[in-house]
Every structure is written in C-alpha cells, then in structure tokens.
TrEMBL record:
Entry keyword annotation includes Nucleotide-binding: yes
Molecular-function annotations in GO: ATP binding
Keywords: ATP-binding, Nucleotide-binding
Phylogenetic placement of the source organism: Eukaryota, Fungi, Fungi incertae sedis, Mucoromycota, Glomeromycotina
Gene3D superfamilies with a match to the protein in the record: Phosphorylase Kinase, domain 1
Official protein name in the record: Protein kinase domain-containing protein
Domain of life, source organism: Eukaryota
Source organism of this protein record: Rhizophagus irregularis (strain DAOM 181602 / DAOM 197198 / MUCL 43194)
Binding site for ATP: K62
C-alpha cells in the first residue's frame, strides 16, 4: 500500500520538472558557476554567492541539505511565488 507522503513527493517532483520545462524555474548545473563564496549558513542549508560563467551574472545559490521536510517547504514556497506571478 502506497503512502500519501510518497504520492505528495511524486507530485512535488512532477511540479518541479514541469516548472523547469515551462521555464518558470531555471535549472543550472554547478559547473556553470564560478567564484563561489559562502555568505550564510543555517541548520538546513548554506547560501553561496557565485557567478554564472557565460554571463558574469552574480547570483545567490541556496544549497539544501538532504532533508525531505525542508525540501517540501522550499517546493511549497516556490509554488506560492509562481502562483503569485500567474504561473
């Protein structure tokens, strides 16, 4: 018997994949960045300042430790922001 949490995780993964395909979530490989500097950290993640190699655009990268509960919170935050932008 499948658990509801497994079904919810499948939906969240599908939502993220759709967001990447539909271009409302950008996906980058780590090898596309340079000049990493840790600018903050907490119990569940670290935040780095990095530069995109192909455009010299400086961005913040949030690296999440493998914690399913926290990942669900991030997915929900992204979904709320996307809904607010009409996605």
């Amino acid at each position: 018997m499948a658990s509801n949490s497994g079904i919810n995780e499948d939906k969240q993964i599908q939502w993220l994949e759709n967001g990447i395909v539909e271009n409302y979530i950008n996906y980058y490989d780590y090898n596309e960045f340079k000049d990493f500097q840790c600018i903050g950290s907490g119990g569940f993640s670290k935040v780095y300042r990095a530069t995109l190699k192909n455009s010299d655009t400086v961005i913040a990268l949030k690296c999440i430790k493998n914690n399913n509960l926290f990942i669900k919170e991030i997915v929900n935050e992204i979904a709320r922001n996307a809904i607010g932008r009409g996605k």
